[in-house]
Amino acid sequence: MKQNHFSLSQLLTDLLLLALGALCLAPLVYMVIMSLNDTYSSFAISFNPKDFSLHHYWDILQNDKLLRYLFNSAVYSVGGVLLTVAYSCLAGYAFAKMDFKGANILFFVLLLTMFLPTEVTLVPQYIIIKNLGWLNTYQALILPLPGAFGLFIMRQAMLGVPKELMEAARIDGCGNFRIFYQIMLPLVKSSIIMLVIFTFMATWNSFLWPLVVGTKESMRTFTVGLSTMQTQYDNNVGGMMASATISFLPPFLLYLVLQKRFVEGVAMTGLKG
Question: Inter-axis angle of helices 64-97 and 237-269, to 10 degrees?
């Protein structure tokens, strides 16, 4: 009886999880199918493959404005990932493996910035960017991206690397940079990939900061450009859904490719220190 009871409860749990999973996937499925429908109504949806069409995607590929927005988003996201990873790895190595005066206090102050809402620092950052004459430039988008979150992830990952490896490398004549590049980075590769995914998703979907510093149409990212073109696609639900699908695909595909390393990075980061 206990075994039957366990099987029944397990079955109910599985069914509940499947139902929740289907509920979460429903908006995504609706978005993709609507993007393939030749329709201008949000209710006129067909699940018949014979009615599917790629002409909404073809229209987007022929739209120079949307292609420019995609290019800006790609530059913003890739540049943000490269800068964030470089800063986080270097700073994380310094805080994890190098002893210097005031390290703990400085790290604590940096962590406090994680609790500040983005809106609090928006105006000071905008004033700095404006005074530097960087409005409507890629450096205005990319340079403010590195923060304490990436530093925290990489520091925690590097704390788990045994000091004996570093001491053995120093005996062999390695300096700090060689230890960092040849020993430390390969050992924390999973955490780096996790940071890459987080950063890419945050920058690709970012809206507020690109909206503030990218006032010219030529500097709009895809997310901002899509919102400003809503009036153009106001009655074209299929076109809007196709644009939303294109916006969704890059971070989703990146996660699919790197998901194994991503899970390893989450497990390895831990809470040491």
Answer: 10
CB atoms within 10 A of CB 85: 19
Measured in residues, the chain has a length of 273
Residue pair 155/232 in contact (Cβ under 8 Å)? The answer is no
253 token code pair: 């595909």
Q: Where are the beta strands (DSSP E) in the chain?
A: none
b/e per residue, 106-132, with b = 16+ CB within 10 A? Answer: ebeebeeeeeeeeeeeeeebbeebeee
Domain ranges of the chain: 2-51, 57-269
Q: How far apart are CA 133 and CA 169, in angstroms?
A: 45
Name every residue whose Cβ is closer than 8 Å to that of residue 267 and which is 6 or more positions away in sequence.
none
Residue for token pair 């507020």: 208
**57-269 CATH, one of 3.10.129.10, 1.10.3720.10, 1.10.10.60, 3.40.190.290:** 1.10.3720.10
Tell me the C-alpha distance between 152 and 273, whole Å: 11
User: Going residue by residue through the chain (273 aa), what tens digit of pLDDT does each one get?
Assistant: 445 555 778 888 888 989 998 888 888 888 888 888 876 666 777 777 777 888 888 888 888 888 899 999 999 999 999 999 999 999 999 998 888 888 889 999 998 888 888 888 899 999 999 999 999 999 999 999 998 999 999 998 898 888 888 888 888 888 888 888 888 998 888 889 889 999 999 999 999 999 999 888 889 999 898 887 665 555 677 888 888 888 888 888 888 887 776 666 555 554 444
d(CA 215, CA 135): 8
User: Considering only CA atoms, which of 175, 151, 183 is closest in space to residue 273?
Assistant: 151
